[in-house]
Amino acid sequence: PLAQTCDALNMEATGKLLQDAWEGVRTIVVLASRSKQPAELQELHPHLKATQDAVGALRQLRLHRDLDRHHKALLEMVGCLSWVLQKPPTMLPANFVNETLGSAEFWSNRIRKDFKGKDETQIMFCNQIKAVITELVAYIQNYHKTGLAWNPRGVSLAEAAILLQDEASAGDEDSGSPTN
Fold it and tell me: Most CB contacts within 10 A, which of 57, 91, 93, 166?
């Protein structure tokens, strides 16, 4: 819904970039569920490229001046995507994500003030940013409380990545068949 709301607000490619960034993090979570924890968390970095590219492109967007606060709120929100790299004793991932809420709400509250009673799409945009962050916190507290959960009986990260890529390729081939 947030990506669609961004599209409704004519925020150029923002909706697509947000979807790409979240899909990249989803891929990391799937990889972790299928693989043993690597010796170094740096081994995850190549797999974060899709998310990093999308966030980088989002940062580079030059939106209309009227959307400046929206852009800043989104940039604060996407900071939460780094939760996959957080682990104790540095910081618990849910706490890390929760901290992005305050920063994103700073800009969202300004948007709310500007558009209160005038434009429900603007208010919906603000509500959706908050919902994305709070739902992510709840998800992390349920499944990744002390950091990204790995599969102790899984394969290596490299092998899981190859298998996932093969599945994606097979899915692409299936979607192009005339029977689908």
Answer: 93
